[in-house]
Records
---
Amino acid sequence: MMQLQTGGKKILRQFVLRLCSCKQSIALAILALAWMPIPAQQKQERTVLTISWADSHATPIKFSLVALEKLEHKKLVMELPPNFGLSGKHEWSGVPLRSVLAAAKATHFSTLRVVALDGYQVSIPAEDLVRYDPLLAYQRDGQYIAIRDRGPLFLVYPFDQYPELQKVLFMNRTIWQASTIILQ
């Protein structure tokens, strides 16, 4: 698909706004604007992860993709279990979950409740951070993970490194579209 230059984006926006002058075209205009690409700078500056404490009124810590990329970086090349629908080996790049929590100065918790964009939640015991070092991935095979591809953050365990992770228990702790971590 050909990328629009800045001038082309302006023309498209003007066209869409003119369509809006007709009441019947409002829905079409909204749909067209929703599909317009977001500039890379805006994508990276928006909050992609919020960390908060279940029993505290402390201000939640928010991370943009840029902030996460400044933390410790790690890559895992592995194949996810078949029930995830991503066949073959993939290179997952991101930040170890323990590093994100360290950057948030998160201590004294026993469980992490990880919440996805759609509200789905998983509970992860703190021991998993030390034992398995799960990865909060923001890239798969060198490409940022789009929301439609289960991103922007996909929490994965190193399934190929530890045979015991092949159990349903650990598969259920893997969560895509992770957006919030609540420490308990």
---
Amino acid sequence: MTTIIHDLTDSELADLASMVKRGRSSWRWVYGADDSIRNCCIEIEGSHVVRAEASTDHAPAQIVRGIYDALKRERQRRSEAARRAANTRAERRDRMVYSPARYYLDRGAFPPAGKCRICGRKLSDQESISRGIGAECWQGVLRTTTTMEKQRSTEGGAKG
């Protein structure tokens, strides 16, 4: 087994090995720090890079570093996208809960219903049916009403 000499640290190499599928991967284009590498592939066995090739004129160490940098950027981009998606879902959930929470604060109760007023799921629990909101959504209503009551008390205290 021939090991390719590269400048990755042990932790970077372990990270690269976890990102490379089944120990071997190839790409049409990899955009490294300095330039692009065309038609490149890498093969990792255990903790050793045993093959790093490209159709462009790059040293194996440049190929390994370019692939690692590109995969790291892709992982960061996906992590950021997942974080934004989670924030978006939370904001949507808050918006969906706001109107029922306002209704609950103004009127004190909901009429019974067979489907949740927030998410539309069928209700089976008798307590959920009587309030017209499922248990999971009800937690959001309680959180929102608590926040609204705190805002009312601070606004009322500021006005008086």
---
Amino acid sequence: MAAGFAKRRRGAELRAWVVLLAATGAVAAGPAARADGSSLGRIVDAVVRHGPTTQLPPHLSMVLGLSSVEHAVPMKQAELRDGTKIHTFMVGAADHADLVLLDYDEASGITEAYRLAPSGTLRKAVSYSAGATANEQPAAKARAGLSRELKFWTDWQARPAGMR
């Protein structure tokens, strides 16, 4: 499951990166931003409007609580590479309140997945390696990881358009 997902993510990386580059610049200054005007809201809007559609794998969808049975959930996504890490921001294609952030470390092969509320509040977090069972993360560790991931995305979104 995870190996195939990682290959699809790497294959779509450049396309999603370019889409998010264009989208966030347009959304940050335009009327499409959410009413709350938050950085997270602007990123969500950019991903919904311009991100390619993909699917959250069946097992991960169930483990994170997006589905009660193992089936893929359609998502809109953006991905950015930062060294050996691939950061993925996913928004439910049908329900934009379904937010998932993935942090894949190519060096270790470990993925940390965070499901969050539209406010940025952590709902659930798991960590897994390709072919291994996903392990739920303790709240304190998960919140620290989620904080780093949210900072990555909001810092990136806050950069001037020419520096993204």
---
Amino acid sequence: MGCGKGFTRCSHARIALLPRLDVAAGPFNIDLKRGPNAERINSTYNKQKNLLKQLRSSAAYCGTNLDSNANPRCFLAIEIEGRSGTRKQRLGSILNASAIGKIGIAVGWDAEVTDSLRKIQQYLDFLWDRQKTAWRPQNVIIMERLTFLSGLASPKSVR
């Protein structure tokens, strides 16, 4: 029985949404070994401080606490947003990247899309500050596509 894109039947016969990221970088936390998996992800986070510093320094927006996701499914969760997406889809991409990755990265295809992502994240921060939401994505970095690619290729960020 097909449940539609992004949905699957769980072992308990309920339907669960399983969002698909554009890019995920490990280590991964996708089996029942949550403790050791979390340790490996945290170890990678600590080893990649130079990469994160490089990405932060050129970001259009950087969250207040990149280490806030205590139960990530991967080290980096990257969503790439093109020109055709709506603001609602961009909001979903920010939330998915934050919830799934130790670090969530939303990459805008161009300056206009990147600015839209930044404004959405600032709105989420505003809602949190006014106690309108119970959770906010604090582990998100928002970048323009070419800036993101150059940050990955930079010798300073490779370790």
